[in-house]
Design goal:
Elements (H helix, E strand, L loop, with lengths): L2 E3 L1 H8 L3 H16 L9 E2 L8 E4 L4 E7 L5 E8 H4 L1
Parallel strand pairs: 1-5
Antiparallel strand pairs: 2-3, 3-4, 4-5
């Protein structure tokens, strides 16, 4: 699986505290190997975002993403729970 990022994701990622960036990188390593590892708390979203998924970076931050048809993933946004949902 390859992970791609949206421009919006990149813009928001650059503004994150360094500690959150380190946590996000560690979680991405887990995600690439096993997207549904329990440590990620991966879940499908509902309502207007019903095609999207998210996983936890820590208790506060999430990454919202899409599974693409070719098996790759597109990260859409990273942020707090309120910012992502």
């Amino acid at each position: 699986m390859r992970v791609f990022t949206s421009k919006y994701f990149d813009k928001r990622y650059k503004k994150l505290p360094q500690l959150i960036k380190i946590k996000a990188e560690k979680k991405e390593k887990i995600f690439v190997v096993h997207p549904f590892d329990p440590r990620l708390e991966t879940h499908k979203l509902h309502g207007k975002d019903k095609e999207h998924w998210a996983y936890s970076v820590d208790q506060k931050y999430r990454i919202k993403f899409l599974f693409l048809d070719n098996g790759d993933v597109l990260y859409l946004i990273i942020g707090t729970h309120d910012e992502v949902y």
